[in-house]
Protein 1
Amino acid sequence: MVVQSQKDRRAMKLVSVNTGLPREVSWHGRMVTTGIFKEPVKGRVALRKLNLDGDRQADLTVHGGEYKAVYCYPLAHYDYWKKEFIAQKPRDGAEVPGRELPMGMFGENFTIDDDGKALHGGQGLVEESVHLGDRFSVGTAEVAVTQPRLPCYKLGIRFASDDMPKRFLASGRTGFYVAVVREGEVGAGDEMKLTAREANAVAVSEITHLYVVKRYGEAEIGAVRRALRVAELPESWKQYFRERLRQAGERS
């Protein structure tokens, strides 16, 4: 772990803290329980090891847990999706999402803003400048980045669109999950300050690429080997990447 000097530290801002409890919704003729419906909360909220107070996940086999305690999504992506939806034409009389997307629309707990700049200088997606293992102080808590989001069909439920998960992943605008290193309280307006960087830095966007790319070349193999050395990457991801290395004829 590389500790950042005060001069090198960059920060993002916590624009909105969003929570929600599981609810039942009708989807394609059946009832589905989902916790993807999040709404902004006022004041300060206790951040604990597994989630924020007032927030729960419906299916704990694939959502929540220590490595998915909090889901972060960049505010800048909202503008991208608004433009996408405005350009989208209605089909079969279905309603297309409008210009307004409320905070928490993507099921995120933290809506974050990097002020239009990549975290470590220059322009680009936040996912390209945030790395596995990066640690951030936020409010009185501390969190560590663990993985990108791989969307499931429930994102499609939220947007009333079956193809939304596929579009979401293809956009590269996945956001990322964090684990809670130190419990505390957080609230809208807090800064997320980078406090330490993992020595084997692998960007969130690169992890997504390594997951979806069909063939591994030398660059991918090197990136996977670095990722496997990051303690914060969940074991399920490590197992997946070890299998990909095996398929590529490499040993982990």
Protein 2
Amino acid sequence: MLAPQYPVNLLVEGRSCLVVGGGAVAAEKAAALLACGAEVHVVAEAIGPEVRSLSVTWEERSYSLGEASDYRLVVAATGSASTNKAVYDDGEAAGVWVNSADDPDNCSFTLPAVVRRGPVMIAVSTGGRSPALASWLKGRLAAQIGPEYEVLAELLAAEREAVRADGRSTEGLNWQKALDSDMLELIKNGHVADARERLQACLSSPSD
């Protein structure tokens, strides 16, 4: 039985990341890294239009042995098991994390299916065992977690900062009561100001 994977959110903003591969899958991986602020370089024998349309640097050539060591994180999306293995082996030798698309044997980390609502991120993973199941679960969650959750997160964050700016501790406040109230329904119906008032009322009440 495979050991459970350790979940983590990586901060890649401003960090150099390499994508090996020039097709649609490579473009998807590169775009996801760009969305998180990474500096992305792409290497492939053929660079497709999807990659060329992105704000990445790229070189149309074969992967050079050892070059994974120049990056903080690497994604291989070549469709070639031998190339993926070469990238993975280089990463292992250099202590660089490597993901190989649809090739779990050549991964030091796997990528979950992700639902994003502003700062709210819900990740679904099967440990690389079934990407189809992860994608299916992502679709179900996306249908249930609407844009109101982004507004909810921002309201909570703003109130937390206000409490801290006032010199008070955020610990011991009744955040759970606020979340269990009708705040979310108020937001869904467009009554954001009322939701903020409800939040403040719940936080000012004693914790159970």
Protein 3
Amino acid sequence: MTTPIPATSFADPAPAPRLEQAAAALRSHGFTVEILDDAAAARARIKDLIPEGASVFTGASETLRLSGIDEDINTSGRYQAIRPRVLAMDRATEAAGFRRLIASPDVEVGSVAAVTETGSLVIASASGSQLPGYAGGAARAIWIVGAQKVVPDLDTALRRVEDHCLPLESARAQVAYGQPSAVNRLLILNAEFQPGRGTVLLLREAIGF
């Protein structure tokens, strides 16, 4: 079976007017949005947004890894980092504790597969481990989103997931875990009803899948 080649258009950063359109739509749906120049700016901003000592869970994300945010959160000692704890747990004997830890942190940080100019966030997952916190379990959620992830609407967002994100994530997962990925679970956030809970740091540059 031939691996699909990711669509080039889904890798191109959206221009400023489209970023502004997406940001305005997200704000109208209750999300807090900041447009930042690049991943370095997001890395610095995260330190202001997350209080020292907070329990923080990071979703598996190339954006977080490439930006250095994953390392900052999980190895700095500044926070109660949840990911290192759950990676050390025995899933067979500590499954209940695992689920509780990842479902309701003070802060969950990650990225998305797409953000629409109509104001929705789309998150795809093979395991679903990051989805409870994003959906409402975490007291706060922060997403760092590269400019190439901005798409016109939900139909295009779902195409981006299947045609662009999945082939790239499958290639990464094959190397990391010895098996391809899959879109087993899909979360679409159309609005945030609790003011200040969901923050999107929308970058002017492309980063991640």
Protein 4
Amino acid sequence: MATGIGGAASFSRLQAQDFKPFDQFLNISTRVLVGAGDNVAVAGFIVTGSEAKRVIIRAIGPSLRGAGISNALQDPTLELHGSSGSLIASNDNWKDAQQAEIQASGLAPADDRESAIVRALSPGAYTTIVRGKNGTGGIALIEGYDLDSSAGSIFANISTRGFVGTGDNAMIGGLIVGGNGGGVNVVIARALGPSLSNIGVQQALQDPTLELRDQNGVLIDSNDNWKDRQQAVIERQNLAPADDRESALLDVLPAGAYTAIVRGKNGATGVALVEFYNIR
């Protein structure tokens, strides 16, 4: 078995069907700098399967200061939209609505100004938008947690668009994989930048780089330009980035927590998209 940096299995000589049973995404998250206009944080995710999935979506800001983030967003707001763009739910302060449900989940935010929504979502595509109240900016964390991993549906993807800065203002996608399968996840992570200009995004990051790290911060894999390595297997999954400067990695991940860190090459800044796909 070929291995990537740090011991995660590389996909270069393997097919997805060689890795059964599969586990699932239990948590999907992105830490991102939230601004105004195109620089609000927009996270999309897909639920696939045959049943509705009960989830909690959170927008965390002020409590990040306890993790050493000095420019944390002080009052995030959260919207959840369906695939047509229709608003499903919104929240400013999590205790304003669903307080009992949120507390019962064991995932109540640590600060009253943070936002949370609990919903049972049918299979489909969804979008969450995080803004700063009254146009404020700062670093926030967008999160989705699976509250019923036994349901006949899974998180299949998360993608978050936001502004990539330097230092603490890099964009960080987070992922927890596990479940009852006792297996692994075959995951594609992508960092898109220049191709966002084609859909009207201003200030698109022109050359993103991507690192995949484990819960201890150990580097598992990294990529600058996606064709440098794994081109054939990424194309086989129909997930090839549209621009050669964009980044992609395909790795086999055992249960655990992982982060995908997106930066601009040579310290460049701009709007980028970080994505995880669950390849089953």
